[in-house]
Design goal:
Elements (H helix, E strand, L loop, with lengths): L1 E5 L10 E3 L3 E7 L4 H4 L3 E3 L9 E3 L18 E4 L5 E6 L3 E2 L4 E8 L8 E9 L4 E7 H8 L6 E7 L7 E10 L5 E11 L7 E4 L3 E6 L5 E8 L6 E2 L5 E3 L4 E11 L4 E13 L7 E2 L12 E3 L5 E2 L1 E2 L7 E6 L2 E2 L2 E2 L5 E4 L3 E11 L2 E13 L2 E3 L30 E8 L6 E14 L6 E9 L5 E11 L12 E12 L3 E6 L15 E4 L1 E3 L8 E8 L5 E9 L5 E3 L1 E6 L6 H4 L12 E2 L5 E2 L5 E5 L2 E5 L1
Parallel strand pairs: 15-21, 23-31, 31-48
Antiparallel strand pairs: 1-21, 2-16, 3-14, 4-7, 5-6, 6-14, 7-13, 8-13, 9-12, 9-14, 10-11, 10-13, 16-19, 17-18, 17-20, 20-21, 22-25, 24-29, 26-28, 26-30, 27-29, 30-31, 32-44, 33-38, 33-41, 34-37, 34-39, 34-44, 35-36, 35-38, 40-43, 41-42, 45-46, 47-48
Length: about 600
Amino acid sequence: MMMACTSAWAQSVVASFAADRSYVAYYEQNFDSDEEFATWTVTSTASGNYTWHLSPGWSSDIAFTSINPQSKNSLCILYGSGQNESATSPAITIEPNSTLEFYNYFEPGFLYSGSWTLNVIEPSTQTTTKLLNQFEWAQKEGYDEKKWKLFSFDLSDYAGKTVQFQFVYSGTYGESELIDGFRVVRIDASEQAKITINQGDSVGFIDASTGEIASWQWTFEGGTPATSTEQNPVITYNNAGTFDVTLTVTGTDGTTSTYKREDYVTVVMQQPNAIIGMPSEGYLSPWVGCFIPTGVPVTFTDQSTGAPTSWQWQFVGATPSTSTDQNPTVQYDKKGTYSLQMTATNDAGSDTDVLLYAVQAGGAQYVWNIAPEENSDLEKVALGWYGNYAGSNWLGLTAFAEHFKQPLADATIDSVAVYFISATTITPDTLITVSIYTVGEDGAPDRNLGSASIRADEIAYTDTTLEATMFVFDAPIAITDQFFVVIEGMPNNSMDVSPYTADDIAIACHRRGTGKFNSVWQLVEDQDEYGQGLGTFKWYENTDDPVSMAVCPVVSYDPAETGIQEITHESQRPVDNIIYNLQGARVSNPTPGIYIRNGKKVIIP
């Protein structure tokens, strides 16, 4: 029901609004009965459940009823051998401002071996255009969830045309698939329009009021924020349900008008996507997910999507070993490397995140400021004609410092591993120095606690993999507070005769973009008005292009041990060496990071 009212004054304004998610469907296929599905054409090379067919799903906990309680079946295909299976819609005439939507349930682990492609067929011209390849999409998006995923495609290019949509599943022993809620919709600003979205989605509301408006007052039942005075607000809906939206506008002459759409927004609950958040107080590492001392409480966090309402945690080696808290605090009292898992549940279903060999308690470990999902994006930060950031350069950047937070217990550092991404030098005798510094009151490097140096031609480097260049201190350096690792002395000379080679040394970095997390400072030489160096220097935080360097001090929570002895050994890995990245592609020579083995996440050194 829509309601409108005005003040007793002569009406000079009329409240009205629409939304960018307001659609009306003019073609729907819910795959609930053979009679409904008979308008589609299935072409198969397989038989039975290995071609497209109707089914409620291969298990009750993934049925489409979590999205649509009235659903009976979905379009289903089970993975098999040598499949090339197509399901083609009837001809549909596409109206202006149209969008194709459908839901798809799949697990991404084996998409490289079997997945679908969505095509658009134009019968009048006998042309076929690919809209999406599922495997290529998962690779690009880094998709690793197991839930009903809503796909949406703008059909503006096909307005006025009659087309068919075709799913083609091909491959060998890939992933089983479910498809449901297939519909073609167009934007609808009429008073009959409704909005249906998934939990956690946002809606952009569009003011369509008439008259000279001075102010807007919105009320969003179930929305975040619940009210707004913006003309065109964007509202997020985190809870399932059906909600009203009300807009009151005030004219420049003081008159008001109110427009209310009852039951305008329907928010559909979805199964959670369970995601474990590692203790933020621990150190990141290229070899384990989190490095902490023994005997110190740490807190794991729920970072799941889909609004779970209950949690079941299991911790190997920790006290307590289980928890139903959303963000549990546990303690590891025995040195070792441990696994954990968390199951997140709501009324629509459950999902489990498993991390194998993810937490190292005690001992020693390489640590850095790069998360596991970031370490595949290490790169050389080139500065054009001016050389490299975190390396040889002609900008007066003479040293670079990587900031580290305070350890959770007293610790020592006996060495630092630096991962260089280029190592060309024409001045091989130049000494490159790594030092541990305290942090001053201004946040910059302050006092040198110890240093180690190597020659420029001793940098460990290959063109195919990142190699650790070790800087070993004469004695372990004690750390009890936050600290810096400072690298200086990288040469920047060039030959003035053929072949005009220049020093080209750079540390691998992960770039994040303006406004995001940064852990690097640079030492900059002061210059006069003509750009000439003055011989004085000052530290600056790199806020313009936030990065973290691939610089790893070996932190030990046990002074009797060394970093090299305590690194996670090959013998601690599972014996099955067939692994896949998070998008399902098989990996033969993995770099450190998170992968899939035996259907579970594992951190690989």
